[in-house]
Amino acid sequence: MNRSAQNTKRKEIWRDFWVGLAFVAIAVLIPVFDPGNYILSQITLFFIWAAVVTQWNLVFGVAGVYSLAQMAVFAIGGYATGMMGLYAGWNLWAALPIGALAAVIASFLIGAANLRLRGPYIAIMTLAIAQVLYALIVTDVECFIYKGKLCLNFTGGAKGLIQYGDFGFKELLGFKYRVLGDYYLGLVLLILGMLFALFIMYGPLGATFRALRDNRICAEARGVDRVRNQLLVFALSGIFTGLAGGVYAGIQRTFGPDVLSSTLLLFLLSMMVVGGRGTKWGPILGAGALMLVDTILRDFGEIRVAGLSLIILVVMIFLPRGLVGLVEDIFRWRPQSRWDERVKDGIARVDFREFQRLRNPKKHPLGTSGNNG
Amino acid sequence: MDIFLQIIISGVSLGAMYAVGTIALSLLWGTMGMMNLAHGSFIAIGGYMAYWCMTVMGASWIFVLPLALAAGMLGGYLLYHLVVRWMFERKEFSVDIIIATVAVAALVENGLLNVAGPEAKRQPFSISGGLKLGDVVLPYQTILTVAVAIILMVIVLYIVTRTKMGIVIRAVSQQQVASQLMGVNVMSAFAQAMMLAGGVAAISGVLVTGATQLFPGVGFDTTIKALVICIIAGLGNLRGAIFMAFVLGLFEVAVQYIFGQQYGFPAMLSLVIVLLILRPHGLFGKETVERV
After folding, report:
1. pLDDT of B28 higher than 80
2. Which ipTM did the prediction report?
């Protein structure tokens, strides 16, 4: 890497550092203004979804493997955490790593099942896998254990898992401040997940993933091992997705098959698309925008899904690079020089002196005298 | 022996429903390279058209299929000009269109939910009773579905391979710039392909909902299964897709009979994954060479 490229990269890292710091500062300070429990729980949910979408973005946006099974990975993380709490009686804090491990294994297997497929085929296959998981959970009616006279299914069936405990913020902070515990836990999850994603994107792995995405054949010809990298990106994205599932299970205190519904999948997919696929801050920006819209639309329950899908369609048609692309365009916009306009109009003559005069009228006021030889 | 026959009949019924669903999907993939996740909305639209025509308006069953065809074609036209047209030129069209059509499917489902209500309805365009073969019954609905699936396939194959419209559609799908230079109206060719697919999908919706029930999200499961079948057959291969629809329908019913109701679709999917690991381009798909 030459020096100017290094400088650009350093500049970019500093910019990301300041953006992240500003975001964290705002997020830490919000509860000080006491916006009410509803808003706080909505923001907590935003943290969790944003954490999932940042990891999904690694697979979908950075590595270009169009997997739609991220919510299945999330569900497996959450279910594993809840089951360790319910059946093994573990504290949920101790169960979180188990959930992450289960999610990593599940994600790895999903990646392995799709190794020989490409592009849109993967999207359909992963969607079908998520659908199968949903069908298996909903149709689970056999009794696994009995609690008193109550028959509990292994996965909790259509009702979902319940009574597996939570993170104990109620005892630690008191009933009133429990929401704050959830809030900061969500924030820590998002910060860690985002740091993880940024490290991958800046590191050599990110470059490998992008190379495979942009031109698979060239990358393979240069010796990049596609199989290894696809398995790696799936496994890596599983870590924080599974943790997010566990945190969600602990905060909601119930975990059901509705996390696998197509509505929620659409919701998270639209976060990624609206924010900007494959960008660093797109997932968080998109998650924020969509949660805002969702909170507003909640009063109009019956058209909520329609509103979300209209937003996706509008963004897909008019802003294919998402909100991040829009922000970039706004920052990079500058008045076009007269030379560019003339080139666009097709009246440009390839005339070096004319070009210099238009570009830099002070230095060469009347064409050039010194450079016409 | 009776159980065996029963499995075959149920499998053929299921396979017929899948087959009818795969035709429109295969057509769109083969001509435009577009995976239509909004296929389920066309199925639902067809079903609701039949319900509206016969139950609400009290009209004769004769009008059902033309009405569904018209509604599906209108839907295809709108889908092309409102959504597909604007992303066709993009490099990542094949994935962008999946996201966009998932959104369209959600939009249509939500619209139907608000207009027609969430409760499941009985769709009247169906035949009750069946043919007695010994102790088992072959429902007339199955015979009707199989017949319509085959007729639709023949019509679609005829249109795509023999008529001028089909030749234009195929030419555009193979060499867009070249056919434009030859004076082909590219936009109209794609709009025609989408209208054809929309009409076929809506008719298949009438048949599918006739065998099950009618509710706003009725098409989603069928779409996923039909897409999986298309993939396993090799996307764009119409005859292979129909054949695989029956094979996988039989397999699913057999698994349901032996292991229990809920394992049908998971078993089918595992089979598909294993087959795709062995043959990534599908069983009947052609291996394409990628150029850099």
Report:
1. yes
2. 0.83
